[in-house]
Structures are given as C-alpha cells and as structure tokens.
Write a structure and sequence with these properties.
The protein has 216 residues and is mainly alpha-helical. It has 9 helices and 3 strands. Helix content is 73%, strand content 5%.
Length: 216
C-alpha cells in the first residue's frame, strides 16, 4: 500500500514509486503495465496513476504501443546511444572536476575507492554498485557545471536501468576499480585532459561489457 505524504502531490509520489520499481527491475522489459490494476494495487484513483505513467513515457522508461503501455525493452542500439551520451558528458565532468573539486570531495573519492576494494573482496555486490554510483555522482557534482549536472541526471535513470537490465544489479570484472583509481589520480593531479581521457575509456569499457552480456 502506498504511504501518502501530504506535502507531495499524489501523482508525483506514484511517479517516484513506479519509476523505482522500473529501475530496480521489479517489472520485466516488455511487460505491459495497466493503469487500473496499478490504481487498485496502490489503493488510489486512476488519475494520479495515469499522470505518473504519462511522465514515465516522457522519460522513455515506458513505451506506448497503441493504447497499451510496456516497460522499455532496450535494443543494442539503445544501449550504445545512451552510453555514448553518458560517455561524453561524464568525460567532460571529470575534466571540469580536475579544476573545481575541493579537498573534501577528493578525499571522499579516495575513501570510496578504498571501500570498493574491500567490498569487492567480500563479494558484496550490492554495496559495490552503490559505491560505483557514488563515485560518479561526486565527480559530476564536483564539475560545478549546473547544466551538465542537469543533462546527465536526465539519462541517469536510463543508465541505471540498463545496468540492472544487463548486469542484473552487479558490475563487470574488478578492472573497473583500477579505472576509478586512475580517474581519481588524474583529478588529484589537476590534469583535466587526463581525467577526461580516463573517464572516456572507463565508460567505453562499461559499454563493451554491457554489449557482451546483451549478446550472450
């Protein structure tokens, strides 16, 4: 049952709830979502559910097929397109972060890498994924470019969805940790060009791993 927060519009609450389900893999790619069934499940009227679904179609996490709504089922082309956008934007974020990052955030990056090594050894994949997301979020925030942050956040949900769709909530092999170390080192050196190159290559490896899993 939906826990209603009085200060937030009901359709916005429904949007966040259904979006989280989509991103977390609660629904299967291609699965049909039915407005009336969702309204009954959450004990709300159909109007806020209808508006939430409309917003998710705009986000392209749901796809309209005739009168029916289906969960986004990414093709290989979709994956490549999304990751190419992510690659360019996060590479730029790394370049800007090398100039703008403060010591506290830099120290946090290093702590995240250290903890990632620890939880990787312990095979705590849930925590590995959480730390991976934090690493990228800190660099994006440290870029200091509000427009870049906004644009990157627009595809963040799709990237997470693809990661869960392809990696089933996990990540690729442990080589990504070394890539994070090289990105952080370049940022610490205040070498924007090197940070940009390292981030570009890192996301390229993410995409190659995702494509490989998609084809198997």
């Amino acid at each position: 049952m939906l826990s209603v927060v009085k200060t937030e519009p009901l359709h916005a609450q429904m949007y966040q709830l259904i979006k989280k389900r989509l991103i977390d893999g609660y629904y299967n790619p291609g699965e049909r979502l039915v407005e009336v069934r969702l309204a009954e499940e959450f004990g709300v009227s159909r109007a806020p559910v209808r508006e939430a679904l409309r917003m998710l179609v705009q986000d392209e996490l749901l796809v309209q097929k005739g009168s029916a709504l289906h969960v986004f089922e990414p093709t290989l082309r979709d994956m490549i397109d999304i990751y190419q956008c992510r690659q360019r934007m996060e590479a730029l974020a790394a370049k800007l972060a090398a100039v703008n990052i403060n010591p506290a955030k830099l120290e946090l990056l290093e702590m995240i890498i250290e903890e990632t090594n620890d939880v990787w050894i312990k095979k705590d994949m849930k925590r590995v994924v959480e730390l991976n997301i934090q690493f990228h979020e800190i660099i994006l925030e440290a870029s200091g470019n509000r427009q870049l942050i906004s644009l990157t956040n627009m595809i963040r949900d799709k990237v997470t969805y693809l990661r869960n769709f392809g990696f089933k909530g996990s990540v690729r092999d442990g080589s990504f940790i070394g890539e994070h170390e090289r990105i952080a080192a370049a940022i610490k050196e205040r070498n924007g060009d090197k940070a940009e190159k390292e981030m570009h290559g890192h996301i390229e490896q993410d995409l190659l791993a995702l494509v490989s899993l998609y084809k198997t």
